[in-house]
Structure formats: C-alpha cells, structure tokens
C-alpha cells in the first residue's frame, strides 16, 4: 500500500467545466476541505473519497457525490484511490460548472481523469517504510545499535535516556526492523 505526506493538485478542464483534484494525507482532511470551501466560494461541488486503516488494520472507505448525480463522482474518485492502492489518503475534487452538461458517463470520466492526474503528480510513499519499533538497550550497546541502524538505513525518531537504559524509537521497512531485532539477540 502507498500513501503521501504532502498534497498533490491537478487541474482538468472538460467542456468548460474545471475539475481541480487534491490528493491529501487523511490527517488534514477536515481543515483542508474547509480551506477549499473558503477559497472556492463559487465552486459547485466538492466531491471526495477517503481510504483509511482502522485499529484492526481493516480498510475503511467513504465517498460523497456532493450533489452530483448518484455514483457519478464519489465512487469514481474512490476507485482512483483503490486503483493506486492508496491508504490514509483523501481525494477531493472541486468542480466549477462550465455551462455544458457532461452526462453521467462524462462526469465519471472527468472525475476519474482529474483524480488520476493528482495521483500521477504525487510523491508516493510505500507504507511499509513507515513501520516503527521501540527498543530498550543498555548504554554500552548504543554505538553498536547506531551502527546497525545506519547500515540498515533505518530512521531514528527519538532517543530517550534514563538512569540505566536508552529507549530508541526507529522507523523503517518491516524486514529491516526485523533484521535489527535479530542483531539485538
């Protein structure tokens, strides 16, 4: 699965209607949607779809047609996220009506195209690289662990020192985290 850490925007114009797709991290969805509505007061529709993982690691998906004919915008937007195997993301497409009706097929194609272009413009991150592990080690093993962390290309998120041990929070691919764990045995 893939995700993103910063917004990606793409603009498509079809028969004088503008479709501006915003692929964003889910954590900023509410504030980003509010900003879009404030910045685009003349826009007709704010179509969106989200894909997240719940606490049981199950995928939850939601979408809204926001006044467009049923299943012509929200579902195609969600299918873009599904097709890109994107998770913890939202895709919001702002539509400015250009005066020409596109029909149901035209709407599906337009929302799909705008979403696909936003995904293509995004810097995607493999979610496997976002796994974290916390380890506790004695002070005398700190240099050895630092060496292995660097060699395995892992990231140190935090280091906390107490009276006898060092607690290190590490991020990286699960296979590399497991390799580090094996080296600690």
Task: Determine Rg (CA atoms, Å).
Answer: 22 Å
**DSSP summary, beta strand count:** 10
Spatial sequence of strands, sheet with the most strands:
2-3-6-4-5
CATH architecture descriptor of the largest domain = 2-Layer Sandwich
Oligomer: single chain
Order of helices and strands: EEEHEEHEHEEHEEH
The number of domains = 2
The H-level CATH homologous superfamily of the largest domain, spelled out, is Impact, N-terminal domain
Strand content: 35-45%
Query: Could you say what the CATH topology of the largest domain is called?
Result: Ribosomal Protein S5, domain 2
Can you count the helices? 5
Amino- and carboxy-terminal Cα gap? 30 Å
Poorly predicted tracts of residues: none
Helix content: 25-40%
Class by alpha and beta content: alpha+beta
Could you explain the architecture of this structure?
This protein has two domains: 122 residues, Impact, N-terminal domain (Ribosomal Protein S5, domain 2, 2-Layer Sandwich), CATH 3.30.230; 57 residues, 2-Layer Sandwich (Ribosomal Protein S8, Chain: A, domain 1), CATH 3.30.1370. It is 33% helix and 36% strand. It has a five-stranded antiparallel sheet, sandwiched between helices. Strands 8-10-9 form a three-stranded antiparallel sheet. A two-stranded antiparallel ribbon has the order 1-7. Helix 2 packs parallel to helix 3. The protein is elongated and about 70 Å long. The two termini are 30 Å apart.
């Amino acid at each position: 699965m893939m995700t993103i850490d910063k917004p990606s925007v793409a603009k498509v114009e079809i028969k004088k209607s503008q479709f501006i797709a915003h692929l964003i991290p889910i954590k900023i969805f509410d504030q980003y949607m509010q900003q879009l509505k404030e910045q685009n007061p003349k826009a007709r529709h704010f179509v969106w779809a989200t894909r997240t993982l719940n606490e049981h690691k199950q995928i939850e998906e939601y979408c809204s047609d926001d006044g467009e004919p049923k299943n012509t915008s929200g579902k195609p937007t969600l299918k873009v996220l599904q097709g890109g195997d994107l998770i913890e993301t939202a895709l919001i497409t702002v539509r400015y009506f250009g005066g020409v009706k596109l029909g149901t097929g035209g709407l599906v194609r337009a929302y799909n195209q705008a979403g696909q272009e936003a995904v293509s413009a995004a810097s995607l991150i493999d979610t496997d690289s976002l796994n974290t592990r916390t380890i506790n080690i004695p002070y005398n093993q700190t240099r050895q662990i630092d060496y292995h962390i660097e060699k395995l290309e892992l990231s140190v998120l935090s280091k906390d020192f107490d009276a006898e041990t060092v607690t290190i929070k590490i991020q990286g691919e699960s296979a590399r985290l497991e390799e580090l764990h094996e080296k600690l045995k």
